[in-house]
Design a protein that fits this description.
It is a single chain. This protein folds into two domains: 213 residues, Rossmann fold, CATH 3.40.50; 75 residues, no CATH class. The C terminus is likely disordered. The chain is an alpha/beta fold. The protein contains 14 helices and seven strands. The protein has a seven-stranded parallel sheet, sandwiched between helices. It is globular, with a radius of gyration of 22 Å. Bound molecules: guanosine-5'-diphosphate (GDP) and magnesium ion. The site of guanosine-5'-diphosphate has 16 residues, from α4. The site of magnesium ion has 5 residues, from α4.
Protein backbone atom coordinates (compact mmCIF):
# COMPACT_ATOMS: atom_id res chain seq x y z
CA UNK A 1 0.00 0.00 0.00
CA UNK A 2 2.65 2.51 1.06
CA UNK A 3 4.98 1.69 -1.82
CA UNK A 4 2.51 2.84 -4.46
CA UNK A 5 2.42 6.37 -5.70
CA UNK A 6 -1.31 6.11 -6.36
CA UNK A 7 -3.11 6.38 -3.01
CA UNK A 8 -5.30 3.42 -2.11
CA UNK A 9 -8.94 3.67 -1.23
CA UNK A 10 -8.24 3.64 2.51
CA UNK A 11 -5.83 6.57 2.20
CA UNK A 12 -8.34 8.47 0.10
CA UNK A 13 -11.04 7.87 2.72
CA UNK A 14 -8.75 9.12 5.48
CA UNK A 15 -7.93 12.23 3.45
CA UNK A 16 -11.55 12.89 2.48
CA UNK A 17 -12.57 12.70 6.14
CA UNK A 18 -10.26 15.60 6.91
CA UNK A 19 -12.04 17.65 4.24
CA UNK A 20 -9.82 16.89 1.23
CA UNK A 21 -12.27 17.47 -1.61
CA UNK A 22 -9.97 16.05 -4.28
CA UNK A 23 -9.73 12.77 -2.39
CA UNK A 24 -13.52 12.68 -2.13
CA UNK A 25 -13.80 13.37 -5.85
CA UNK A 26 -11.46 10.49 -6.63
CA UNK A 27 -13.40 8.11 -4.40
CA UNK A 28 -16.60 9.05 -6.21
CA UNK A 29 -14.93 8.53 -9.59
CA UNK A 30 -13.79 5.07 -8.54
CA UNK A 31 -17.29 4.30 -7.26
CA UNK A 32 -18.76 5.40 -10.55
CA UNK A 33 -16.36 3.39 -12.72
CA UNK A 34 -17.21 0.13 -11.02
CA UNK A 35 -15.05 -2.99 -11.13
CA UNK A 36 -12.12 -3.63 -8.82
CA UNK A 37 -11.60 0.03 -7.91
CA UNK A 38 -15.19 0.29 -6.73
CA UNK A 39 -14.80 -2.91 -4.72
CA UNK A 40 -11.82 -1.37 -2.94
CA UNK A 41 -13.77 1.78 -2.20
CA UNK A 42 -16.64 -0.33 -0.93
CA UNK A 43 -14.36 -2.22 1.44
CA UNK A 44 -12.76 1.00 2.68
CA UNK A 45 -15.96 2.95 3.34
CA UNK A 46 -18.37 0.28 4.55
CA UNK A 47 -16.97 0.00 8.11
CA UNK A 48 -17.15 3.79 8.46
CA UNK A 49 -20.77 4.26 7.36
CA UNK A 50 -22.80 6.08 10.02
CA UNK A 51 -26.26 6.17 8.51
CA UNK A 52 -26.65 9.55 6.81
CA UNK A 53 -30.11 10.40 5.56
CA UNK A 54 -30.64 9.88 1.84
CA UNK A 55 -33.21 12.02 0.03
CA UNK A 56 -34.13 11.19 -3.57
CA UNK A 57 -35.42 14.03 -5.72
CA UNK A 58 -37.07 13.06 -8.97
CA UNK A 59 -39.49 14.36 -11.57
CA UNK A 60 -39.72 15.32 -15.23
CA UNK A 61 -36.87 17.18 -16.96
CA UNK A 62 -37.20 20.91 -16.43
CA UNK A 63 -39.42 20.60 -13.34
CA UNK A 64 -36.80 22.44 -11.32
CA UNK A 65 -35.16 19.51 -9.52
CA UNK A 66 -31.64 20.90 -9.75
CA UNK A 67 -32.75 24.37 -8.63
CA UNK A 68 -34.66 22.81 -5.74
CA UNK A 69 -31.76 20.53 -4.84
CA UNK A 70 -29.41 23.51 -4.77
CA UNK A 71 -31.76 25.48 -2.53
CA UNK A 72 -32.29 22.55 -0.23
CA UNK A 73 -28.56 21.85 0.01
CA UNK A 74 -27.89 25.50 0.80
CA UNK A 75 -30.60 25.62 3.47
CA UNK A 76 -29.40 22.44 5.15
CA UNK A 77 -25.81 23.62 5.01
CA UNK A 78 -26.78 26.92 6.63
CA UNK A 79 -28.37 24.87 9.41
CA UNK A 80 -25.00 23.21 10.01
CA UNK A 81 -25.27 19.99 8.02
CA UNK A 82 -22.80 18.65 5.52
CA UNK A 83 -24.64 17.84 2.34
CA UNK A 84 -23.60 15.57 -0.52
CA UNK A 85 -25.40 15.89 -3.85
CA UNK A 86 -25.43 13.22 -6.55
CA UNK A 87 -27.02 14.55 -9.73
CA UNK A 88 -27.83 11.91 -12.29
CA UNK A 89 -28.49 13.34 -15.72
CA UNK A 90 -28.82 10.90 -18.62
CA UNK A 91 -28.87 13.61 -21.27
CA UNK A 92 -25.74 15.43 -20.18
CA UNK A 93 -22.94 13.19 -18.94
CA UNK A 94 -20.02 15.11 -17.41
CA UNK A 95 -19.30 17.99 -19.77
CA UNK A 96 -22.83 18.62 -21.04
CA UNK A 97 -24.21 22.12 -20.73
CA UNK A 98 -27.04 21.17 -18.40
CA UNK A 99 -24.83 19.52 -15.82
CA UNK A 100 -22.40 22.39 -15.88
CA UNK A 101 -25.32 24.82 -15.59
CA UNK A 102 -26.70 22.93 -12.59
CA UNK A 103 -23.32 22.97 -10.95
CA UNK A 104 -22.94 26.70 -11.34
CA UNK A 105 -26.45 27.37 -10.07
CA UNK A 106 -25.90 25.23 -7.02
CA UNK A 107 -22.53 26.74 -6.25
CA UNK A 108 -24.06 30.21 -6.37
CA UNK A 109 -26.76 29.49 -3.83
CA UNK A 110 -24.41 27.65 -1.55
CA UNK A 111 -22.58 30.86 -0.73
CA UNK A 112 -20.51 30.96 2.44
CA UNK A 113 -21.19 27.43 3.56
CA UNK A 114 -19.90 26.25 0.22
CA UNK A 115 -17.47 23.76 1.71
CA UNK A 116 -20.32 22.03 3.52
CA UNK A 117 -21.77 21.02 0.17
CA UNK A 118 -20.23 18.67 -2.36
CA UNK A 119 -21.95 18.19 -5.71
CA UNK A 120 -21.22 15.35 -8.04
CA UNK A 121 -22.79 14.76 -11.45
CA UNK A 122 -23.00 11.21 -12.64
CA UNK A 123 -23.63 9.82 -16.09
CA UNK A 124 -26.13 7.03 -16.44
CA UNK A 125 -24.00 5.07 -18.84
CA UNK A 126 -20.42 4.10 -19.31
CA UNK A 127 -19.79 2.35 -16.04
CA UNK A 128 -19.99 -1.27 -15.16
CA UNK A 129 -23.15 -2.26 -13.30
CA UNK A 130 -24.73 1.10 -13.98
CA UNK A 131 -26.47 3.42 -11.61
CA UNK A 132 -27.93 0.68 -9.50
CA UNK A 133 -24.40 0.01 -8.22
CA UNK A 134 -22.71 3.37 -8.59
CA UNK A 135 -25.25 5.52 -6.76
CA UNK A 136 -25.57 3.47 -3.55
CA UNK A 137 -21.78 3.20 -3.34
CA UNK A 138 -21.39 6.95 -3.88
CA UNK A 139 -23.95 7.44 -1.10
CA UNK A 140 -21.84 5.28 1.23
CA UNK A 141 -18.73 7.24 0.29
CA UNK A 142 -20.40 10.53 1.29
CA UNK A 143 -21.74 8.94 4.45
CA UNK A 144 -18.41 7.43 5.51
CA UNK A 145 -16.44 10.65 5.07
CA UNK A 146 -18.78 12.66 7.27
CA UNK A 147 -21.72 13.96 5.25
CA UNK A 148 -25.04 14.12 7.13
CA UNK A 149 -27.49 14.25 4.29
CA UNK A 150 -27.20 13.02 0.73
CA UNK A 151 -29.48 14.38 -1.98
CA UNK A 152 -29.83 12.22 -5.08
CA UNK A 153 -31.35 13.99 -8.08
CA UNK A 154 -32.59 11.79 -10.92
CA UNK A 155 -34.83 12.40 -13.89
CA UNK A 156 -38.03 10.48 -13.20
CA UNK A 157 -38.45 9.05 -16.65
CA UNK A 158 -36.65 5.71 -16.85
CA UNK A 159 -37.35 2.74 -14.61
CA UNK A 160 -33.78 2.67 -13.37
CA UNK A 161 -33.87 6.37 -12.54
CA UNK A 162 -37.16 6.03 -10.69
CA UNK A 163 -35.75 3.04 -8.85
CA UNK A 164 -32.60 4.89 -7.86
CA UNK A 165 -34.65 7.78 -6.50
CA UNK A 166 -37.00 5.33 -4.82
CA UNK A 167 -34.08 3.69 -3.00
CA UNK A 168 -33.75 6.75 -0.74
CA UNK A 169 -34.95 7.10 2.84
CA UNK A 170 -37.27 9.82 1.61
CA UNK A 171 -38.27 10.30 -2.01
CA UNK A 172 -39.40 13.73 -3.18
CA UNK A 173 -41.37 13.89 -6.43
CA UNK A 174 -41.32 17.27 -8.16
CA UNK A 175 -44.10 18.36 -10.51
CA UNK A 176 -45.06 21.75 -11.94
CA UNK A 177 -48.39 23.46 -12.49
CA UNK A 178 -49.83 22.73 -15.86
CA UNK A 179 -52.31 20.43 -17.38
CA UNK A 180 -51.59 16.78 -16.75
CA UNK A 181 -48.25 17.10 -14.99
CA UNK A 182 -49.49 15.19 -11.96
CA UNK A 183 -51.07 12.64 -14.27
CA UNK A 184 -47.75 12.20 -16.08
CA UNK A 185 -46.03 11.64 -12.75
CA UNK A 186 -48.59 8.97 -11.92
CA UNK A 187 -48.01 7.29 -15.28
CA UNK A 188 -44.25 7.23 -14.75
CA UNK A 189 -44.81 5.32 -11.51
CA UNK A 190 -43.76 8.30 -9.40
CA UNK A 191 -46.91 8.36 -7.29
CA UNK A 192 -45.98 5.10 -5.61
CA UNK A 193 -42.42 6.12 -4.77
CA UNK A 194 -43.21 9.63 -3.54
CA UNK A 195 -43.07 10.28 0.21
CA UNK A 196 -43.27 14.01 -0.36
CA UNK A 197 -44.66 15.86 -3.36
CA UNK A 198 -43.48 19.27 -4.45
CA UNK A 199 -45.41 21.49 -6.82
CA UNK A 200 -42.54 23.72 -7.96
CA UNK A 201 -42.87 26.86 -10.09
CA UNK A 202 -45.65 27.99 -7.79
CA UNK A 203 -45.13 31.45 -9.28
CA UNK A 204 -46.99 30.17 -12.32
CA UNK A 205 -50.75 29.80 -12.81
CA UNK A 206 -52.45 26.50 -12.05
CA UNK A 207 -50.76 25.70 -8.72
CA UNK A 208 -54.06 25.05 -6.94
CA UNK A 209 -55.18 22.65 -9.66
CA UNK A 210 -51.90 20.74 -9.53
CA UNK A 211 -52.15 20.40 -5.73
CA UNK A 212 -55.77 19.22 -6.00
CA UNK A 213 -54.89 16.70 -8.75
CA UNK A 214 -52.16 15.24 -6.57
CA UNK A 215 -54.31 15.12 -3.42
CA UNK A 216 -57.08 13.39 -5.35
CA UNK A 217 -54.70 10.73 -6.68
CA UNK A 218 -53.12 10.26 -3.27
CA UNK A 219 -56.63 9.76 -1.82
CA UNK A 220 -56.99 6.72 -4.06
CA UNK A 221 -53.74 5.04 -3.05
CA UNK A 222 -53.91 2.01 -0.76
CA UNK A 223 -54.13 2.80 2.94
CA UNK A 224 -54.64 6.50 2.20
CA UNK A 225 -57.12 6.88 5.05
CA UNK A 226 -55.45 4.71 7.68
CA UNK A 227 -53.97 6.88 10.42
CA UNK A 228 -50.71 4.94 10.80
CA UNK A 229 -49.96 5.11 7.07
CA UNK A 230 -47.79 8.05 5.99
CA UNK A 231 -49.81 10.44 3.90
CA UNK A 232 -47.41 12.16 1.47
CA UNK A 233 -47.67 15.91 2.03
CA UNK A 234 -47.84 18.26 -0.95
CA UNK A 235 -45.57 21.31 -0.68
CA UNK A 236 -45.54 24.26 -3.06
CA UNK A 237 -42.23 25.94 -3.87
CA UNK A 238 -40.56 28.52 -6.07
CA UNK A 239 -37.07 27.06 -6.39
CA UNK A 240 -35.72 30.17 -8.09
CA UNK A 241 -36.49 32.38 -5.07
CA UNK A 242 -36.40 29.79 -2.28
CA UNK A 243 -40.05 30.21 -1.39
CA UNK A 244 -41.41 27.10 0.34
CA UNK A 245 -38.00 25.55 0.99
CA UNK A 246 -38.35 26.00 4.73
CA UNK A 247 -41.62 24.05 4.68
CA UNK A 248 -39.95 21.35 2.57
CA UNK A 249 -37.19 20.98 5.16
CA UNK A 250 -39.84 20.63 7.90
CA UNK A 251 -41.70 18.00 5.95
CA UNK A 252 -38.48 16.06 5.33
CA UNK A 253 -37.82 16.08 9.08
CA UNK A 254 -41.37 14.90 9.77
CA UNK A 255 -40.88 12.01 7.37
CA UNK A 256 -37.57 11.12 8.97
CA UNK A 257 -39.31 10.95 12.37
CA UNK A 258 -42.03 8.78 10.84
CA UNK A 259 -39.39 6.40 9.44
CA UNK A 260 -37.84 5.97 12.88
CA UNK A 261 -41.08 5.66 14.84
CA UNK A 262 -42.80 3.25 12.45
CA UNK A 263 -39.77 1.04 11.85
CA UNK A 264 -40.20 1.71 8.14
CA UNK A 265 -36.74 3.27 7.97
CA UNK A 266 -35.03 0.04 9.03
CA UNK A 267 -37.18 -1.95 6.63
CA UNK A 268 -36.19 0.33 3.77
CA UNK A 269 -32.53 0.16 4.64
CA UNK A 270 -32.42 -3.60 4.79
CA UNK A 271 -34.42 -3.85 1.57
CA UNK A 272 -31.97 -1.47 -0.05
CA UNK A 273 -29.02 -3.48 1.19
CA UNK A 274 -30.53 -6.70 -0.13
CA UNK A 275 -31.16 -5.15 -3.55
CA UNK A 276 -27.64 -3.81 -3.73
CA UNK A 277 -26.11 -7.16 -2.78
CA UNK A 278 -28.26 -8.76 -5.46
CA UNK A 279 -27.15 -6.23 -8.09
CA UNK A 280 -23.53 -6.71 -7.14
CA UNK A 281 -23.83 -10.51 -7.28
CA UNK A 282 -25.55 -10.26 -10.65
CA UNK A 283 -22.73 -8.08 -12.00
CA UNK A 284 -20.14 -10.59 -10.77
CA UNK A 285 -22.04 -13.48 -12.31
CA UNK A 286 -22.39 -11.56 -15.57
CA UNK A 287 -18.62 -11.04 -15.67
CA UNK A 288 -18.02 -14.77 -15.26
CA UNK A 289 -20.67 -15.60 -17.84
CA UNK A 290 -19.06 -13.27 -20.34
CA UNK A 291 -15.68 -14.84 -19.72
CA UNK A 292 -17.15 -18.30 -20.29
CA UNK A 293 -18.88 -17.18 -23.47
CA UNK A 294 -15.68 -15.61 -24.75
CA UNK A 295 -13.85 -18.87 -24.12
CA UNK A 296 -16.47 -20.79 -26.10
CA UNK A 297 -16.09 -18.46 -29.05
CA UNK A 298 -18.86 -17.44 -31.40
CA UNK A 299 -20.74 -20.71 -30.99
CA UNK A 300 -21.43 -20.18 -27.30
CA UNK A 301 -22.04 -23.46 -25.53
CA UNK A 302 -23.38 -25.13 -28.67
CA UNK A 303 -20.10 -26.98 -28.93
CA UNK A 304 -20.79 -28.61 -25.57
CA UNK A 305 -23.64 -30.54 -27.17
CA UNK A 306 -26.62 -28.28 -26.48
CA UNK A 307 -28.75 -27.59 -29.55
CA UNK A 308 -31.28 -25.05 -28.35
CA UNK A 309 -30.40 -21.63 -26.97
CA UNK A 310 -32.06 -22.59 -23.68
CA UNK A 311 -30.00 -25.75 -23.58
CA UNK A 312 -26.79 -23.83 -24.24
CA UNK A 313 -27.69 -21.40 -21.44
CA UNK A 314 -28.36 -24.31 -19.10
CA UNK A 315 -24.94 -25.78 -19.89
CA UNK A 316 -23.35 -22.45 -19.05
CA UNK A 317 -25.25 -22.11 -15.79
CA UNK A 318 -24.30 -25.69 -14.97
CA UNK A 319 -20.66 -24.90 -15.56
CA UNK A 320 -20.73 -21.78 -13.39
CA UNK A 321 -22.61 -23.35 -10.52
CA UNK A 322 -20.50 -26.47 -10.56
CA UNK A 323 -22.92 -29.12 -11.66
CA UNK A 324 -26.43 -28.76 -10.27
CA UNK A 325 -29.10 -30.39 -12.41
CA UNK A 326 -29.48 -28.53 -15.72
CA UNK A 327 -33.28 -28.71 -15.72
CA UNK A 328 -33.75 -27.22 -12.29
CA UNK A 329 -31.07 -24.64 -13.04
CA UNK A 330 -32.82 -23.65 -16.20
CA UNK A 331 -36.03 -23.30 -14.26
CA UNK A 332 -34.51 -21.16 -11.54
CA UNK A 333 -32.61 -19.05 -14.06
CA UNK A 334 -35.95 -18.40 -15.72
CA UNK A 335 -37.71 -17.39 -12.51
CA UNK A 336 -34.71 -15.30 -11.49
CA UNK A 337 -35.06 -13.28 -14.65
CA UNK A 338 -38.75 -12.93 -13.85
CA UNK A 339 -37.92 -11.46 -10.46
CA UNK A 340 -35.56 -8.97 -12.05
CA UNK A 341 -38.23 -7.94 -14.52
CA UNK A 342 -40.95 -7.52 -11.96
CA UNK A 343 -38.63 -5.48 -9.76
CA UNK A 344 -38.21 -3.05 -12.61
CA UNK A 345 -41.92 -3.05 -13.42
N1 LIG B 1 -40.55 30.33 -12.91
C1 LIG B 1 -39.84 29.40 -12.28
N2 LIG B 1 -38.83 28.80 -12.92
C2 LIG B 1 -38.14 27.84 -12.26
C3 LIG B 1 -38.46 27.45 -10.96
N3 LIG B 1 -37.62 26.45 -10.59
C4 LIG B 1 -36.79 26.25 -11.62
N4 LIG B 1 -37.10 27.07 -12.64
C5 LIG B 1 -36.43 27.17 -13.96
O1 LIG B 1 -36.75 26.01 -14.70
C6 LIG B 1 -35.63 25.61 -15.52
C7 LIG B 1 -35.27 24.16 -15.22
O2 LIG B 1 -34.75 24.09 -13.90
P1 LIG B 1 -33.81 22.88 -13.43
O3 LIG B 1 -33.61 23.08 -11.97
O4 LIG B 1 -32.62 22.75 -14.27
O5 LIG B 1 -34.80 21.64 -13.68
P2 LIG B 1 -34.48 20.06 -13.69
O6 LIG B 1 -34.29 19.67 -15.12
O7 LIG B 1 -35.70 19.45 -13.12
O8 LIG B 1 -33.27 19.82 -12.86
C8 LIG B 1 -34.52 26.58 -15.21
O9 LIG B 1 -34.52 27.58 -16.19
C9 LIG B 1 -34.92 27.15 -13.86
O10 LIG B 1 -34.41 28.46 -13.65
C10 LIG B 1 -39.57 28.11 -10.30
O11 LIG B 1 -39.94 27.82 -9.16
N5 LIG B 1 -40.21 29.06 -11.02
MG1 LIG C 1 -31.45 18.72 -13.23
Amino acid sequence: MSGRRVPGAAELVAAARTGDRRALGRLLTLAERGGRGADEVDAAVSPAVRGATVVGITGAPGAGKSSLTGRLAARLAEAGERVGVIAVDPSSPFSGGAVLGDRVRMDEVTGERRDAVFIRSMATRGHEGGLALAVPLAVRVFDAVGFDRILVETVGVGQVEVEVAGAADTTVVVVTPGWGDAVQAAKAGLLEVGDVFVVNKADRPGVGDAVRDLERMLDLSPGAHEPQVWRPPVVTTVATTGEGIERLVEVLDEHRRHLVESGEGDRRRSGRRRREIRERALAAIARRLDAELARDGAEGSAGAGAVSVGGAAAVLVDRLTGGASPTSDEGSAGSGAGTADSRHG
